[in-house]
Design brief:
Length: 61
Amino acid sequence: MTRFYRVMRDLVLGVVGELFQNASYPLMSLNKLFTIKWNPKRCNNALKPYFLKFLKDIKVG
């Protein structure tokens, strides 16, 4: 795992963790996402349910 990869993983997990801190979103799939080889399509598929729920919670979608 490269240094850049670790920094990006920690940054994304930190931002998502802060964003959803008061909500009951399981972050296990995000941890699983970053333990496998980086793949943008896989990333989008893994994050989509979180963002859809977040948008629904704030009454956007």
